[in-house]
Amino acid sequence: MQIFLQGRLKSKPEIRETRNAKTLVKILIEENDNERDREANVVPVTFFAHAANRAKELQVGDLITIVCHLNGTRFETETGEVRYGVQLIGEKILVEAAVKKEIATR
Known about the structure:
The chain is of the alpha+beta class. 15% of the residues lie in helices and 54% in strands.
């Protein structure tokens, strides 16, 4: 299942390395629908491999569209309780060219 997210990069990309010395980048994308009376929705997305190298170049405020897939997670607590979650894994990043040009002229 593919999911498309569109919004602005909220903060500087967080760059790390996996145990296998592979690049991992985490970003926060913010969607703010001005027509609704609610807080902005901030979503974390994780990138690996080639997509991580692209994510490292993003700048705060960039308007981006991300192609992602869902990754189910499973965690067992010290008491043996099993908890489940979901993670968004970014596959492709599209940066709006008009926004990049606008940011460059500021």
